[in-house]
Amino acid sequence: MKRLLHVLSVACIAVAPMLLPATAAAQFAKPEDAVKYRQSVLTVMSNHFGRLAPVVRGQQPYDPAQVKADVALVATLSKLPWSAFGPGTEGGGARPAVWADNAKFKQGQERLHADIAKLVAAADAGDLAQVRTAYGAVGASCKACHDNFRNR
Ligand code: HEC
């Protein structure tokens, strides 16, 4: 039995790379699952990004550790939604342009990642003025993509 399990696990390891999804859609059983996944991640990312708003507006005291924690979550979560926009997952609040002009949609993701990298650096430096500037740039990245690719 033990040997059989070993053989099976070796076989699985050997076969796994071939089973890697050819399209991102294959990561999800149904297209609706992909829509739900990306909307959920975007909602949680947005929540943590939104927690920075009162801080950068000076309505809440600047707690560098808290800002760092929220920014770290935004950075991590911002990597997740995009694989859930694979072929065959049209719908939700996404415009058809996501698939029709996918290169531009990808540029929007790259812009977001570049701006979030600056926000991470600012939060790490513990510099509120820098955090404020970087926060504004990230917000503009969100908006630019939504203007082109999200239904309102
Ligand atoms: C590269 C494009 C792009 C960028 C950048 C982007 N979004 Fe979005 N966002 C979308 C698209 C497309 C949808 C619609 C997804 C759907 O409903 O399937 C969406 C939906 C959302 C939603 C709604 C989720 C739901 O429950 O329906 C929120 C909230 C959101 N985005 C927040 C943000 C925030 C905050 C940022 C920046 C930190 C951001 N997004 C950056 C493309 C983007």
From TrEMBL:
SUPFAM superfamilies: Cytochromes
GO molecular function, one term: electron transfer activity
Residues that bind heme c: C142, C145, H146
Signal peptide: 1-24
A GO-annotated cellular component: periplasmic space
Keywords assigned: Electron transport, Heme, Iron, Metal-binding, Signal, Transport
Gene3D superfamilies: Cytochrome c/b562
Pfam families the UniProt entry points to: Cytochrom_C_2 (PF01322)
One GO term (biological process): electron transport chain
InterPro entries reported in the protein's UniProt record: Cyt_c/b562, Cyt_c_II, Cyt_c_prime, Cyt_c_prime_subgr
Post-translational note: Binds 1 heme group per subunit.
Name of this chain's protein: Cytochrome c
Organism: Pigmentiphaga humi
